[in-house]
Calcineurin-like phosphoesterase (Podospora aff. communis PSN243), 328 residues
Amino acid sequence: MGLLTLLHLRRPSPWEPPTLLDSLLSSPLALLVTILYHILLLLRGPPFIPSPSRPPIRIVCISDTHDLIPGDIPDGDLLIHAGDLSSVGTLEAIQKQVDWLKGLPHGEKVVVPGNHDLWFDGEARLGGDGIGGEVRWGGVRYLGGQEEGVEMVFKGGRRLNVWGAGGVPRIGKDGEHAFQYDRDKHPWKGRMPDETDVLITHTPPRFHRDLGLGCDGLLEEVWRVKPKLHVFGHVHWGYGKEAVYFDECQRAYESLMTETGHGFIWDMFPSRAWINAVKVVWYGVKSIVWKWVMLGPGSSNDGGLMVNASATYGNTGRLGNKVIAVDL
């Protein structure tokens, strides 16, 4: 560990949030544009507003409980667990988490596997663990990337198409984590049903609540499907919500983040990243004017929402993040 890390001026690993010095050394331009981009998102208002003419569907989002049981779970119509129920990944540990989920009052409950949920992946399952055993799901649905999504019917006859799958970009050797894949051989292309309203994955898409550790291939597929809600976890420090609009502003931001990170000296030379920085501001301001001047206050933005639902606070191994509920 270097001196700057000991002085807390540099982060010890990519799984920790970057310090100010980390960000400046990597790309001052990316730091500045990221701040501006999120200010622009805030000024646009909520990405969607539930219709007052029909009952909202409340979706409760949880991820990365790692054998722990959060308290104060909000009531809702649909409960989502986006993976890493367990830390050890055995059938016994997973069953304890499923039993807890079964006892919650939500009408619909769904789970996708995380990279620590080894038992679900036959290639990563611990030797001899749960031979011949099965998870007793009760009323909990397991989503493992089936070809078709699940259509759920809620109060007032409202319907949602829900699709989910595990899988993370490789972070260890074969067998160390479940459902790993190489980034250049990602499993997402063309996999999600076009009509998906709610998407559940364990990994984040890249550049959205992910510390830069998310999946580019997943991001491409999310652009194709454009779900109203995307719930994930995996990167604990990415916890929180982020509006998405799948527009020119977002495209420019993601392109800039791909093009930067080569060092602060590189940012001093004119490049395509400069053009994308201007595009982020231009399209962002344009969208704000359209929202507040042309459409008016109270109008819907027709956007979507990404939720990193990690219940574990950072890399502390302790619960600390509030469970997120979203009304659709």
Remarks:
- The first strand starts at residue 58 and ends at 62.
- The mean pLDDT is 94.
- The radius of gyration is 20 Å.
